[in-house]
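Researcher: Please predict.
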Amino acid sequence: MSIEILMPALSPTMSEGKLTKWLVNEGDIIKAGDLLAEIETDKAIMEFESSEDGILKKIITPESDENISVNQPIAILDTDLPTHSQENKKVENSIPDSSKNHSEPTLTEVSKTTKKETLNIKSADTKETPKKISTNQRIKISPIAKKMAFNLDLNIADLFGTGPGGRIVKADIKQHTKKNDSYRKLVGEENKSRKTHHFNEEPERIELTPMRRTIAERLTSAKRDIPHFYLRKRARVDKLLEARETLNESLIKRDVKISLNDMIIKAVGQALLDHPDCNVTWGGDCIMKHKAADIAVAVAIPGGLLTPVLRNVESKSLSEISQNTKDLIIRSKEKKLAPVEFSGGTTTISNLGMFGIDSFDAIINSPHGSILAVSRTEIVPILNKESNFQKATVMNLTLSVDHRVIDGAVGSAFLASIVSFIEDPITLLA
């Protein structure tokens, strides 16, 4: 009996997918649980298993096909497997008859063959080896410096390199030419080399991937439908940085390294326990109040963004948070997350501090009640209790809040609690 293999729904929000790779071929015998294909959903690339035994009769959807709707047929499976006796007969028939003139090769023949193959390999290697290049090409020079020298009709053998290992760099060309009129030519050639575009030139069209389409739809909906308001507060992180350094020194032997983001995750988890009215999601016709501090972490990947969820943050140590977060980030970038790993949670942390961002407002990841935007650290002067200025390391935090589930006073207390844990990190270890 032939049955259709349908495009599966591999994530809660998946409506269509891309068949990136078939892991089997037509005619292969399939067992239930065998991997059939790799499918790119709106969240990740996931492996798809067979639920039936059979023979893969026909592949309907080829590799790299996009926008395949859920429940659309992608292959046909024949569930009528050959019997054991038929398989044995097939195997027996495939075994060559030893009575026919199939003599074993002699030692001499094997030696000749091996020698011939060795010669062929050597010949191929010799062919691929690049020829000796000229003296000028042996000189270490950066590509841009080489182009500049060519435009100025300079002999690079006459130039002195100040780069690593005596490499000639752009500055060396300018130094060589600035004392004569050719320097003006250098500036002119650089400007000339810059590609210009006509005002009516057609732009490049980039087709939307399933992930990018889902991101566009969800964020448009979130920005349109969720009544955002924003709370901002600056946190002093000097003690947090000192605590992190001390912890990492003690964790070297365990091969664990705590990041600043790990400690912020812990601070948010503790703050959710102290402010359960902020540990909420929008339920459409109700507010869902959660018990565990499940926090999503925004991870940038090629082509989009994923938000894997770190479960039970309130009960995890900093080392556990560090290891779990690293694992989720790695598998996010490899698109190997299971649907349950990017579902749920009540709030999200989006950290752009490593990109040098001073401050930003993040869009809430529906149905979450909030999202915390974390910016870079910077050193600023502050006035101490003795009315003297001193240096302090600070970080700007912005909490985007869904006003349907969290009011201003409640959200303000929540953000203040996060800052308190950051500024007094010893409380994170209690």
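Model: Residues 2-84 form a domain with the OB fold (Dihydrolipoamide Acetyltransferase, E2P) fold (CATH 2.40.50.100).
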